[in-house]
Amino acid sequence: MKKWLMRCIMLFVCFVLLIQIWIFASLFWWRSHPVETTMFMRTYYWTTPDAKIYHQWKDADQISDHFKRAVIAAEDGRFLQHKGFDWDGMMNAVQRNEKKGEVVAGGSTISQQLAKNLFLYNKRSYIRKGQEAVATWMMERMWSKQRILEVYVNSVELGKGIYGVEAASRHYFGKSAKNLSRDQAIKLAAMLPNPKYYQDHPNDRRYQFRQRFINKYISHARLPSDD
Q1: Euclidean distance between the first and the last CA atom of the chain, given in angstroms as a whole number
Q2: Is the keyword Ligase in the record (predicted)?
Q3: Which of 42, 60, 152, 221 is 20 to 30 A distant from 34 in Cα terms?
């Protein structure tokens, strides 16, 4: 019994180490290569009948700064200040959730969200959060902030089977991501983090509120290239 237990523990440790090696190797490769697919894309394809994936990579200079600023304003106003984890934001989210008695705020940074999109699944668990933290820590030390933002806007979900700002821009506005106006960028960024719902409910009050919020703070959002 003891040997069997030790064997199970060793197998689990080896499995965890293999995952870390896979994440490290992927991050190293993606430092200079486009990210063509993510775990979120694969999961959607595997679990959705007749699923179609719409995605097209674009380099940072081919994406509107309006959208990049809108995403920072919407998702992570302290993006340039933290090292992957916004502890103040997390504490604020916990307090808001406790006050409301339900989950109304997340507190995850762009880096954390990207780590989850690239490597993990959407179901909440302590194991997933722990793996997300490890992947985020690696990413912040291997990639620049500019690279993190570039990959994020290229891989984030923005509708049913729609991933990345280029595919979203083509779908909703019939134009390249480089030519998005400020208002169009705000509408796309406001869809996060519930794009499938807002895609079908464009008049939802929370969606309209998010657009007003982003419009108010977008001019204060700084990009890595601003430094």
Answers
A1: 59
A2: no
A3: 221
Instruction: Let me know: does 207 contact 199? Beta carbons within 8 Å.
Output: no
Number of domains in the chain: 1
**Closest by Cα among 48, 86, 223, 46 to 152:** 223
The closest of 166, 143, 158 to 224, measured between CA atoms, is: 143
Residue 56 sits in a domain whose CATH number is 1.10.3810.10
| Domain ranges, residue 36 | 2-226
Whole-model pTM? 0.88
Q: What CA–CA distances, in Å, run from 64 to 20, 96, 146? A: 34, 33, 14
In the predicted model, residues of the chain with pLDDT beneath 70 are: 1, 89-106, 122-125, 226-227
For residue 163, list its beta bridge partners: 55, 157
- What is the per-residue pLDDT across 75-128, written as a single tens digit (0 to 9) for each? 999 999 998 888 776 666 545 555 555 444 457 899 999 999 999 876 666 777
CA angle in degrees (0–180, nearest 5) for 83-15-143: 25
